Amino acid sequence: MSPKRLSAEERDRFSWQLARLLYRTTRLFGLTGTATALICLSLPGAMEFTSYLTCVVLLAVLAVAQTVMTYRPDPLWMILTYSIGLSTIAAIYIPADGQLNMGTGSAISALGAWGIGSMATILVSTWGQLVCLALAFLSTIGTILALSTGINPRTLPLLVFISVGWGVSTMFGLWLRSSFPRIMARVASIGRAHNVERRATETETQRHRDARLLHDTVLATLTLLAHSGVGVAPEALRAQAESDGALLTRLRLGESPQPKSSGEYTLTNTAELALGGTLEALKRRFGSMGLDINWHGSGQLGLPGGKLEAFVLALSECLENVRRHSGQTVAHVTLSDDGEVVRGVVTDAGVGFDPQAVEDGRLGFAESVVARVRDAGGSVRVFSAPDAGTTVVLEVPK
Predict the structure, then answer these.
(1) Section 133-152 average pLDDT
(2) Pick from 320, 321, 305: nearest CA to 396
(3) How far, CA to CA in Å, does 58 sit from each of 36, 38, 162, 339?
(4) Which residues, at least 6 apart from 305, have a Cβ–Cβ distance to it below 8 Å?
(5) Which Gene3D superfamilies match (predicted)?
(6) Residue-level pLDDT at 1
(7) What is the pairing mode between strands 379-384 and 341-348?
(8) CA–CA separation, 166 vs 175, rounded Å?
(9) If pLDDT is split at 50, 70 and 90, which confidence band does 4 have?
(10) Residues above pLDDT 70, as percent of the chain
(11) Of 344 and 188, the one with more pLDDT
C-alpha cells in the first residue's frame, strides 16, 4: 500500500514517526562519534593538556548542540552543530601542526565520520536537503585538506573513513525513507483489521446482552402465562406484561434500554440506587409474585457501579430460578463483604437438582448468572442435589 492511500491522520502519524526515528538515529550516531573522539583524545600522550582542555570544552558544546538539534529540529541548530564540529576538528589539528598521532587521528576520524557526518541521515527528504548534504560533505573534506595542506599518506585514511561514515549515514537515511512507508502502511492495515474485529466483538457482546434481556423479561412473562399465573396476583402479572411490551417496543425502535431487564427494579440503573433501596425493590417485586426473601448479612457492598449492577442482576436471576423451580415460597440471601470479595449466597429448601445433569448451553443460568458474574471478574458455584435444596454462591472481587 502506498502512503498516498493512507488517510490524512495516518499520513500525519507516518510522517511524525519517520521524523522521530531519523532524528533519534542522528542523535545516536552523533553522540557516539563525539564520545569516541573524547576517548581517543584522552589517551596518554595524544595532546598537550591545554589543547586537550580546549577540545574537551568544544566536544561538550558539540554534544549539547547535537542533542538540541535532534529534539528541536531547525536549520540554524544544524548549521551551529556543523560549525562546532568543524571547529573541534581544527582545534585538534592545529596544535598538532599536521603531525597526527593515533589518538588525534582517530578523534578527527570519529568527528568527521559520525560527529557531524551523522547529519546526513536527516538530509535525505528533499532534493534541497540532498544538495545541502553534498555541500556539507565537500566542506568537511575541504577543511581536512586545508588543515593538512593536501593529500598525504596520513590524511588519506582520514578522508576514506570520513567518506565511508557520510556514505553509511546517507544510505541509512535513504533506506529508512524507502522502507518506513511500507511498514506504516502495514501497521495501518493491521489497525483497521483490529477495529473491524473489535466492532464484531462488540456486536456479539450486544447479542449476548440482548439474549439476557429477552430471558429476564419476555420468557419470564411467558412462563407465568404458561402456568396460568398460578400464585401471582393479577395486578403483578399485568404490570410485568405491560413493562415487557414497552421494552420490546423500545427495542424495535433501535433503543438500548438500561439496564438489560424489565420489571419495577429494572428500568432504573441499579448503579445509581443505594443498595438498600435496590434490595428492598427486589423484595417487593418477588413478594408480589409469591416469593418471600429473607436478607442476612451486610447491607453495604463496596462495589463500583458496573460490578454492582452485574452482581444485583445475577442475584435477581437466582431468585427468579428459586421462584420458578424450587417449589418454595421462601428464599434466603446472605450478603458479605470481607474487603476484597463481595459474596452473595442464595439458598432455598426446595426440590433441588443434579448440577451435572444441567446442559451447558442452557441460556438462563449460563448467560444471566454465570456470564454476568464472570464479566465482572467473579465466579459462581452451585451446590444442589435432588430433594436437598439449592445453594448458589456468587463472588465478585472489589
Answers:
(1) 83
(2) 305
(3) 14, 10, 20, 62
(4) 269, 271, 272
(5) Histidine kinase-like ATPase, C-terminal domain (3.30.565.10)
(6) 38
(7) unpaired
(8) 14
(9) very low
(10) 73
(11) 344
How many CB atoms are located within 10 Å of the residue 27 CB? 20
Closest CA relative to residue 90, chosen from 38, 146, 34, 136: 146
Q: 339's torsion region: left (phi>0), alpha (psi -120 to 50) or beta?
A: left
255: left (phi > 0), else alpha (psi -120 to 50), else beta? beta
* Residue closest to 80 by CA, chosen among 90, 69, 92, 70: 69
Round to the nearest angstrom and report the end-to-end CA distance of the chain.
Answer: 47
Output the nine-digit C-alpha cell for 138: 565537500
CB 107 within 8 A of CB 40: yes
Q: How far apart are CA 217 and CA 314, in angstroms?
A: 14
Cα–Cα distance for residue pair 55/89, rounded to 1 Å: 9
Instruction: Give the residue extent of every domain in the chain.
Output: 3-192, 271-397
Least confident range from 205-214, 250-259, 275-284, 310-319: namely 250-259
Nearest to 165 by CA among 108, 203, 204, 213: 108
Identify the CATH class of 271-397: alpha beta
